[in-house]
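May I ask you for just one protein sequence along with its backbone structure tokens in two labelled lines?

_____
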Amino acid sequence: MRLTILGGGGFRVPLVYGALLGDRAEGRVSHVTLYDEDPARLTAMTRVLRDQAAVAAAHDLAGNGPAVRAPAVTATGDLDEALRGADFIFSALRVGGLEGRASDERIALAEGVLGQETVGAGGIAYGLRTVPVAREIARRIARIAPGAWVINFTNPAGLVTEAMAEELGGRVIGICDSPVGLGRRIARLLGARPEEAWIDYVGLNHLGWVRGLRIGGRDELPRLLADSEALESFEEGRLFGAEWLRSLGAIPNEYLHYYYFNRDTVRAYQEAEQTRGAFLRDQQRGFYAEAGRPAAPAGAALAAWDRTRAEREATYMAENREAAGVGERDESDLESGGYEKVALALMRAIARDERATLILNVRNGSTLSVLDAEAVIEVPCLVDANGAHPVGVEQLPLHAVGLVTSVKAVEREILAAAASGSRASAVKAFALHPLVDSVGVARRLLDGYAAEHPGLAYLR
């Protein structure tokens, strides 16, 4: 199989390639094409993947298993060339780069609202930049690689998946590692193997709740909710606190901390020495400079990536933990949800008809009655050779309905603004968001973002 990664110079690409190196089954990916508009990023990332392949080969030669041929890697700045012949396409774009993310945060915080890249004003600004690009790429895929399956990592993941689905229908599927990581932590706390647990999770991307976790047909979540010590022994429990989780009767996705503790979080972000986007921008500049050095010895690029990733994971949502007064992340929380493993499981299920159950971003159909059929939601899905099929779930409680429908209304205004160039729709998207809640602030935000980002020049 042939895999194309759009945004192939991006920092998380080695996670995907590492998962492919561990896949020894028949019909595995044999060729990876990296597409990126930045040649320097492509050069650095190609070196990291080369180092990964060398480490895997040395491991096999040491008698640690049968030798496996690493997928060949090519890099290109030509989108049509990258798409041609692809069986699967990973979309991992960042329109505006980390400089854009940093300015999204800065402009929002100056107005006293959240600028996070997928939540609130920052997420809206990022969506307004990204949706037109994602739609054009979807049209190119439909024309050049109509048989390919698209796995979307590009944030805001639910919104971008819905935009691409306008052209690609069910052949685009969004993934995120947050619900996977949350379900894994809960299962282990309850003494179960994560792969043996059924996770009752429902919502939108970065706006969902674990409402049950069934082991052997029995819902064990009430047992966890009754145990304050166990609840506050993992990341989400410490962020939200046992009392609030018991009030909800569910475990929220970590991103709901921005909603439930918004004022505290905004204050922590305003007082921080540097925003998350600015930190990542500076950190990754250093990484790409080091990994791209022509005279660097073998293994240096991978070592630089490993160090940078460890620091990135350790500082993830640091301001939220500061607001919650819970200090640094525990080592047990540093393991990501493994979005690369989700992606590999999704590819296997489709390519080999190896049926799997995964939490994915897909079209609603009739799953949630409060949303229309075209709305992209994040729920457990059964995956087979025909794609991802959402599983029937219980309907949302009223407090969750309010958040989900409000945020989906915002996403629809972003889609409308990107399609029509309507400034009025863009202002409406900001004003309707529960974390902005002011038409005056919405107008100033849009003016600030339009002045900063040439990619918003289409709004009029």
About this structure: The first helix runs from residue 13 to 21. The longest strand covers residues 207-215. The chain has 20 helices and 13 strands.
